[in-house]
Amino acid sequence: MKKNSPSFWRLLYKAHRYMGLISALVLLMLAVTGIALNHTETLKLDNRFIQNKALLNWYGILAPTTSQVFKTPNYYLSQFNQQIYLNKQFIINSSDKLQGTVETKDFIAVALENSILLLSLTGDIIEQIEHLNLEKIGINSRQHIFIQQSGKVLVTKDGLLSWQEATTTEIQWVQTVKLPKSIDTSIKQEFRGKILPLERVFLDLHSGRFFGKTGVLIVDACGVLLILLIFSGFSIWLKYKLRKLFH
Fold first, then answer.
1. Can you give the residue ranges of every domain in the chain?
2. Which residue in 41, 46, 31, 102 sits closest to 71, CA to CA?
3. Are 86 and 97 in contact, with CB atoms under 8 Å apart?
4. pLDDT tens for each residue of the chain, 247 residues long
5. Angle, CA of 107, 109 and 113, to the nearest 5°
6. Cα torsion 227, 232, 237, 243: sign
7. Sign of the CA dihedral running 22, 25, 26, 27
8. Closest to 67 (Cα-Cα) out of 43, 90, 89, 85
9. CA distance 5 to 26
10. Coil, strand or helix at 34
11. What H or E segment, with its residue span, contains residue 213?
């Protein structure tokens, strides 16, 4: 028994030391993220979003593809998923498909599947007018605006106030175009940069989910090591306490 006793305590000391070293990094991460999460409102973790491309890719947050792009003399109108942009400026969320846009000297008219957006030349929404089953929009040399609605062509000559059936075929229907790369890149960066809050990353780091199932298992293993550290540390302390008491 006397020969085995020192060997047991040496093993316990080494185990205690190495368990502490192994778990230290993970425990440090848990401590830092835990403190940060306790002050989410102060640090505004829920209002600060990740911009780093590598992190966004890690979470599978990919840039959207454009579904529709139209051009006026001075602007590009594009739709990314359900978000509509005038050049690089976000305009509105809409589940309706973008059908086209025309520009006059006073305003911009944007045709969606079931409505027409009236925009100022600075991109502010003036009005949204319901028009069901819109198929396309066009304009002529006199800046009369035309729409095709359920196969019927209508025209307005008074700034979208009234519509009547068109009798002319002199219409320049807008066609889809390709969005310039600079605008496309800028919109995609903005789109991705408003999805992943910093709070989510801290929560995932704290739980280990940031690294997938393996990360959760590592955090769980460190939890077990922490329990063992407590017991081994208590045992070592108790040994010295008893030795001091009886010697």
1. 4-48+197-246, 66-192
2. 102
3. no
4. 455 455 766 776 676 676 666 677 778 888 889 899 999 999 999 999 998 889 999 998 888 877 789 999 999 999 998 899 999 999 999 999 999 999 999 999 999 999 999 999 999 999 999 999 999 999 999 999 999 999 999 999 988 989 999 988 899 999 999 999 999 999 988 888 888 999 999 999 988 888 888 888 888 887 787 777 777 777 767 767 667 666 6
5. 165
6. positive
7. positive
8. 85
9. 32
10. helix
11. helix 212-246
DSSP 6-29: HHHHHHHHHHHHHHHHHHHHHHHH
The answer to whether 114 and 124 have CB atoms below 8 angstroms apart is: no
Contact 14, 227 (CB under 8 A): no
* pLDDT tens for each residue of 65-85: 777 899 999 999 999 988 999
Q: For helices 212-246 and 4-38, what crossing angle results, to 10°? A: 130
Quote the CA–CA distance of 106 and 124 in Å, as a whole number. Answer: 12
- How big is the chain by its Cα radius of gyration, in Å? 32
pTM, to two decimals: 0.66
The secondary structure of 192-210, three-state, reads HCCCCEHHHHHHHHHHCHH
Q: How many residues make up the chain in this entry?
A: 247
Give the closest residue to 26 by CA, choosing from 231, 234, 232, 214: 214
Query: 26-41: per-residue pLDDT in tens?
Result: 788 888 898 999 999 9
**What CATH homologous superfamily does 66-192 map to?**
YVTN repeat-like/Quinoprotein amine dehydrogenase (2.130.10.10)
